[in-house]
Amino acid sequence: MELEVYYKFILTFALILLAARVVGEFFERYLKQPAVLGELIAGLIISPFALGGLFFDDSIILNFGTVHDVFGVGEFHVMEVISEIAVIALLFVAGLETDVRSFAKQGITGALVAFGGVILPFLFGFVVTWLIYPDEDISAWLFMGATLTATSIGITVRILMEMGKLQTKEGTTILVGAVIDDIIGIVILSVVISISAVTKVGGDLDMGHVAIDAFRITIIGFAVWFALLIAGLKFHKQISKYVLGPFKRSGTAPIFALIIGFLIAWAVTQFDLHPVVGAYVAGLMFAACAEKEELLEQTRPIMLFLAPFFFCYLGMQVDLADLKAGIWLALILTILAVIGKLVGCYIPARFQGKLSHNSAMIVGLGMVPRGEVGLIIAGAGLLSGAIGGTLFGAAVFVSLATTFVTPTLLKPFLKKHDDEERRLAAGDG
Amino acid sequence: MELEVYYKFILTFALILLAARVVGEFFERYLKQPAVLGELIAGLIISPFALGGLFFDDSIILNFGTVHDVFGVGEFHVMEVISEIAVIALLFVAGLETDVRSFAKQGITGALVAFGGVILPFLFGFVVTWLIYPDEDISAWLFMGATLTATSIGITVRILMEMGKLQTKEGTTILVGAVIDDIIGIVILSVVISISAVTKVGGDLDMGHVAIDAFRITIIGFAVWFALLIAGLKFHKQISKYVLGPFKRSGTAPIFALIIGFLIAWAVTQFDLHPVVGAYVAGLMFAACAEKEELLEQTRPIMLFLAPFFFCYLGMQVDLADLKAGIWLALILTILAVIGKLVGCYIPARFQGKLSHNSAMIVGLGMVPRGEVGLIIAGAGLLSGAIGGTLFGAAVFVSLATTFVTPTLLKPFLKKHDDEERRLAAGDG
Questions:
Q1: How far apart are the CA of A304 and the nearest CA of chain B, in angstroms?
Q2: Looking at residues B114-139, what average pLDDT do you find?
């Protein structure tokens, strides 16, 4: 009976959410770790490559088992679709929670943090892969460099949210940095893809053309971002009145705002940006409105319901067997990924942003998780043939490992930050 | 780039939600009609069979345009998946909103009104479809009968609320009747689905077997329903403590309750019941808990976000050309749907419930709107292949038309009811 497959999907959906919530709660309560890590671990556990293979039947595994083919042209994966909806809702709410006015102030430091956090990891990734795999093509080294540049806004935001640090100066700097990073990451991805396309057919590399393309994407990315930020800051009264106003009487203004968030998430993809960038800036735009709290109240439950799906599904995509082959590269890259981001982001935060040593460490470590953006870049590399299964496995490992270590690394600095704030508050009183 | 297809999905998803919300709001505010009607109409408008065909490009249409092919064995339709999630969330919240305790008291009259309102419309729907479409399968006739049995709780409640009649004896009777009707409708749906599964594979229809099967599903349906209702009424303290308790500190108890709702929705499918029965009774179970209001506060936004997708997508599946082909059936069924409910509910309300003629008319007419439950049944029929586009169009038409006519038909009786009450009050004074 064909309804069976839908029923199985309901089960799969419910089990993913259940596993994510239960393991997430366990991590939060007993291990004092962010729920998001528990959600990722839940994904590893119920992955079809692990336990999931034992107790789900074939047709369910089929629904998530085609992970490595997901990037094949024309494939359309239902789990991926729900993940996509989830991550857009997450980033919209993250934008909505941001204090836009202080966000605007942190612009320059955030930008420098982002650039610093891109340059070092890119060099590390490129050089180390070249040293360990000298027989690979230049495009393979470029791709591995590129996968190290990204910062996962989603994971960073969740960790900051759960630790109650989203509203701090450090939190805002990290967020600005992560958003700009995303734009830079997408630019690098586009550049690397065009380079590898040329080298693959054995043609001459027209660096002028590549540079123009990179410039175009950069300009558009920042333009979209500034346009929505300024729309929110300057026209928030008009947005309240003409966009949210008509839906206030029925109490659906927050739902309508979220729908606009989805539309903007799509719109930015037309300029080669990733949808999460659009979702985030859409949230930012509404964050300047007087209705901010009401919007949050109604959209946060939607995010709380869907976001764990995204993280759990991310964990489910890891094939432990693939990781084994490139484990040395993976470990070295992970260490360098942490050091690269930390140093690259610490320097501008400390010296341009004039943050304390402790705060600059929080910013540097907060930028460490690679998460989904690293996976997207690695997937594109695999698809274009620039990297093989081993390098892909290593890239996936780096994305996950950097995410796993972040909360642990951050904790002492956040604790010290709390102490500093308490001392400051006591001094004021 | 292969991500394109996901980006297009985001656009599709956002446009459906946007259209549903805007037209829904318009209906509510300017036409003084329930928003759900607007959402359906929005679907009709943006359907690939109508305007959607003009301004969406091919690959988007592909995402919803394959509506009639979706139902081929093994096909798995992403829009259907999201609809499924949406309708489960909707029914869970509907169950959660029910006042379980007063619900339990008003049992007998409500049950008789419900049964009366099921028998006549079912017979009318079955016989008329059989007479007009004698070449169709028996499962098609059964489905058309089934679509006429349901009463929309949501629409009925909204109409009663707007007219200030929710707390009257008539209002309570209608409400209890509508709720029981829903369960009967869902049981009928399950029976019809299993019958159509047998006839579709070309098996002989053994009516004795069908009767036993129907009996089995009825028993299981009511057993599951009573079990969860009683679990809620008797063990609500334990549910609060052991099911919701562990998630209270992180504020995710409502999310966890909804996840349990999804699991129960799946579980009942293992007894041949439709997932919405499970979702509804899961909601009922939690409705008895002390946390009811908190649960509603956090799950209602999820429902408000997703449910319009369900109704709009239903509207999108109507091909106006198909509707034209079945217009006579649609008109006849609409008239019979009104007469069937009116007579079937009037008799028990007047003679068992001892209501006045005017009050029994109010009960009968209040049960007329088919709304979402009729659509759920029709959608399941289309999905299972039991009914085709023409019959589906007619079923949607009946759901829409019965909902449209109800307020107009009710008005004179409600006015007379007000006059009676005033006379009574004057006599008392």
A1: 7
A2: 87
Amino acid (1-letter code) at residue A255: I
Q: What is the per-residue pLDDT for B240?
A: 84
Which range (A290-294, A357-361, B136-140, B149-153) has the least confidence?
Answer: B149-153
Q: How confident is the model at residue B255 (pLDDT cuts 50, 70, 90)?
A: very high
Contacts of A35 in chain B (CB under 8 A): 250
| CA A350/CA A348 separation, integer angstroms | 5
pTM of the model: 0.79
What do you get for the CA distance between the two ends of chain B, in Å? 78
User: How many residue pairs bridge chain A and chain B with CB atoms within 8 Å of each other?
Assistant: 156
Left, alpha or beta for A371 (phi > 0: left; psi -120 to 50: alpha)? left
Structure tokens at B408: 């107009």
Rounded Cα–Cα distance for residues B380 and B274 (Å): 9
Contact A259 B14 (CB under 8 A): yes
**B182-213 residues labelled b (16+ CB within 10 A) or e (exposed):** bbbbbbbbbbbbbbbbbbeeeeeeeeeebeeb
**pLDDT of B318 above 60:** yes
Query: According to the model, what pLDDT value does residue A395 have?
Result: 83
Nearest Cα to Cα of residue A312 among A9, A22, A10, A6: A22
Whether B35 and chain A come into contact, CB under 8 Å, resolves to yes
CB B95 within 8 A of CB B279: yes
B395 in Cβ contact with B374 (< 8 Å): yes
Nearest to A160 by CA among A151, A170, A150: A170
Record the tokens describing residue B406, joined without a space.
Answer: 């109800």
Phi-psi region of B73 (alpha: psi -120 to 50; beta: other; left: phi over 0): beta
pLDDT digits (tens, 9 = 90+) for A26-66: 988 887 777 777 887 888 788 766 665 555 544 443 443 33
As a whole number of angstroms, the distance between CA B220 and CA B268 comes to 9
Contacts of A382 in chain B (CB under 8 A): none
Name the pLDDT band for B73 (thresholds 50, 70, 90): very low
**Pick from B195, B108, B129, B71: which is nearest to B336 by CA?**
B129
| C-beta pairs of A228-232 under 8 Å, 24+ apart in sequence | A228/A264, A228/A281, A228/A282, A228/A284, A228/A285, A229/A100, A229/A103, A229/A104, A229/A281, A229/A284, A229/A285, A231/A285, A232/A100, A232/A284, A232/A285, A232/A286, A232/A287, A232/A288, A232/A289
Q: Rounded to an integer, what is the distance from CA B180 to the centroid of its chain?
A: 12
CB B173 within 8 A of CB B420: no
Identify the structural domains of chain A with CATH numbers, from first to last.
1-61 (no CATH), 83-419 (1.20.1530.20)
Q: Does B269 touch chain A (CB under 8 A)?
A: yes
